[in-house]
Design brief:
Elements (H helix, E strand, L loop, with lengths): L2 H24 L3 H17 L8 H17 L6 H19 L2 H17 L6 H15 L3 H14 L6 H10 L4 H7 L20 E3 L8 E10 L2 E8 L5 E6 L10 E7 L2 E2 L6 E3 L5 E9 L3 E8 L4 E7 L4 E7 L2 H12 L1 H4 L3 H11 L6 H4 L6 E6 L16 H20 L2 E4 L9 H10 L4 E8 L9 E6 L5 H11 L3 H10 L6 H23 L7 E7 L11 E8 L3 H7 L2 H26 L3
Parallel strand pairs: 2-6, 12-13, 12-14, 14-17, 15-16
Antiparallel strand pairs: 1-4, 2-3, 3-11, 4-5, 5-9, 7-8, 8-9, 10-11, 15-17
Helix pairs in contact: 2-3, 3-4, 4-5, 5-6, 6-7, 7-8, 8-9, 10-12, 14-20, 16-17, 18-20
């Protein structure tokens, strides 16, 4: 190459370097900078209860997001800003009860659904419009219209299953609900093996274009870690393992490849995890057209990966092996008896164990801490009664009554997954119980059925099932499809919950008997529907005996009327309390016959 050519090449590279430097110095694009500034203000408000007491603080933050839309209407952040502004006014209305605040929220949500129909938040915005007529205006006819508009305009939206079930509760005809179901082809899950590991799996879901990893959350307890990957749309994924490499000083790793998925701006490339099975979570986009999420493990562990919808996410559960779990239980509960030999003590306990008696019972595990979970909440109203009664409100009331009884009468420590009307993701509820080392997990719900003659009380525990009724109910509570429940059976065929399934069955029996007895002492026509197994998302991964209570059918006019009274809700709570008390007493007698 001549000196002249070298000079031209050098000059070109110099210009390019200068442009890149100027771009870096300029910072993020103006729309992104304005949006992030508004987000910082949002979190300052969210984390400051004192600021939340004053209406103008809410308005000021909402206006920052509205400015983003006004100044950058063509930006990809415009729809995000509209949605957050709407959420702010919605939350403000719940404090101020001024109609102007609700009207402003609905106006912003409608604008989002109309002007940004391709946004992943458009169907969520339309759901809030419907919720206005359900939760605040008590107008089922208008609510049905808004829900029908939702499923018609956004047939593949992730809130579609919930909207169709709400239509059922609100009395839509069979034809109307059937017409609202999307006619889409679903891909069949396949399994593939790669050279990285014989255990690699490929779970293929029907994916919309352009999935983006928007958020990564994690929860840890001493024996497990749950990591959740939230994606903008359903993402195809595959899972693989990599062994530790002593030469390179790398730990054993589990990775999840999100096919055709981009990395969102707000996801950290690396985050440390403390107190569980995972040391670090790393994310990086690969040239091969996928996003890889790597979990650095402290030791080889078992894992379970499964998809969930509404919102779309991939859940990764990492847990120690069964013999290691026995060791941890031995360390935690039988340190004195083991005299420094927890593994030996744990093996002795496993050898000594009997059918129907869990390892935790053999280790002398008493019940001291209970997590009470009020189903649904916030943007998820749950089932809706003929008179507009919302399951989320009844569940919260009964959960608080139950917690008070457990705390005051049995002197137990009670923790709540929610104490007010807020949305808590299903996977976060059991993760909360695990993190806090709860001894029991009780999820409170109220049932629904298209046939409004259905009535009664029942209790569920987690296990595989082919029962159509249980599958249908699980689909409703999980806000997903019956097909997804059937698919999940195969993904979770190796459920590592046998150490607690016997305890969960026994707890179910005691609580069911307690509820039926409590209600029948005062009310007629209380139907005992017994105990059943089902694949409820909210119970998956619980590392303690766990049950889901359906304390009457809110869609049955008679039972809805009863549920609207404090006396009936008190009797439901008393029944659950009696069941828990008798379970604890029976367990104590088994552990100490004298």
């Amino acid at each position: 190459m001549s000196n002249m050519a070298w000079a031209k090449t050098f000059a070109a590279w110099a210009v390019l370097a200068l442009l890149l430097a100027q771009s870096a110095a300029a910072g993020p694009p103006p729309a992104e900078a304005a949006y992030q500034k508004a987000r910082r203000a949002y979190y300052l408000l969210k984390d400051n209860p004192e600021k939340q007491k004053f209406r103008h603080n809410w308005q000021n933050v909402a206006q920052k997001f509205e400015k983003v839309v006004e100044n950058f209407p063509e930006s990809t952040r415009a729809s995000d800003a509209l949605f957050t502004a709407g959420r702010l006014y919605w939350s403000l209305y719940k404090k101020s009860w001024l109609s102007d605040d609700l009207d402003r929220a609905i106006s912003l949500f409608r604008r989002l659904a109309k002007d940004f129909p391709s946004s992943h938040l458009a169907d969520d915005a339309q759901m809030y419009v419907a919720l206005k007529w359900i939760e605040f205006k008590k107008d089922p006819d208008q609510a049905r219209k808004e829900l029908q508009a939702l499923v018609k305009q956004f047939p593949k939206g992730d809130v579609g299953p919930k909207a169709r079930r709400m239509l059922e509760d609100l009395g839509a005809s069979v034809e109307e609900v059937a017409e609202a179901k999307p006619k889409v082809k679903t891909k069949v899950k396949t399994e593939s093996k790669t050279t990285a590991s014989p255990k690699q799996k490929l779970a293929t879901k029907s994916a919309e274009s352009g999935p983006v990893l928007e958020k990564v959350r994690h929860w840890s307890d001493p024996v497990s870690t749950r990591v959740v990957l939230y994606t903008r749309s359903l993402a195809e994924y595959r899972v693989g393992e990599l062994p530790a490499d002593k030469a390179r000083k790398t730990p054993p790793r589990l990775y999840v490849d999100l096919i055709g998925t981009d990395l969102g701006d707000e996801v950290d490339g690396s985050m440390a995890v403390t107190g569980g099975a995972v040391l670090k979570i790393r994310t990086a986009e690969r040239d091969e057209g996928f996003l890889r999420v790597v979990l650095d493990l402290d030791a080889p562990h078992s894992h379970r990966v499964f998809p969930m919808t509404n919102p779309n996410r991939v859940v990764v559960d990492i847990s120690i092996e069964d013999d290691q779990l026995a060791q941890v239980i031995g360390q935690k509960l039988t340190a004195k008896a083991a005299k420094g030999q927890p593994r030996k003590e744990a093996k002795r306990l496993k050898k000594k164990s009997k059918p129907g008696v869990s390892l935790s019972m053999m280790a002398g595990l008493g019940v001291k801490r209970i997590v009470v979970d009020a189903g649904h909440g916030g943007k998820d109203p749950g089932a809706i009664g003929p008179s507009g009664t919302l399951e989320k409100d009844i569940a919260l009331d009964v959960a608080k009554r139950l917690g008070k009884m457990l705390s005051e009468e049995l002197k137990l420590e009670v923790l709540y997954t929610r104490k007010d009307d807020r949305f808590v993701p299903l996977e976060g509820r059991t993760a909360f119980a695990n993190k806090n080392r709860a001894d029991l997990f009780i999820s409170i719900h109220f049932n629904a059925h298209r046939n409004r003659k259905f009535r009664g009380v029942e209790v569920f525990y987690l296990d595989l099932t082919d029962d159509r009724y249980s599958i249908k109910l699980a689909a409703r509570e999980n806000a997903t499809s019956e097909k997804s429940i059937s698919d999940l059976k195969y993904i979770l065929a190796d459920l590592t919950l046998k150490s607690h399934v016997d305890d969960s069955i026994n707890l179910s029996k005691y609580v069911q008997k307690g509820m039926v007895g409590s209600l029948r002492r005062k009310y007629k026509k209380v139907r005992d529907m017994g105990i059943k197994s089902a694949l409820f998302y909210v119970l998956i991964g619980a590392r303690m005996p766990s049950i889901l209570v359906e304390g009457s059918f809110i869609t049955n006019p008679m039972e809805e009327k009863r549920l609207r009274t404090k006396a009936y809700r008190k009797k439901v709570a008393e029944g659950i309390f009696t069941g828990v008390k008798n379970f604890i007493r029976a367990r104590s007698r088994l552990l100490d016959p004298n």
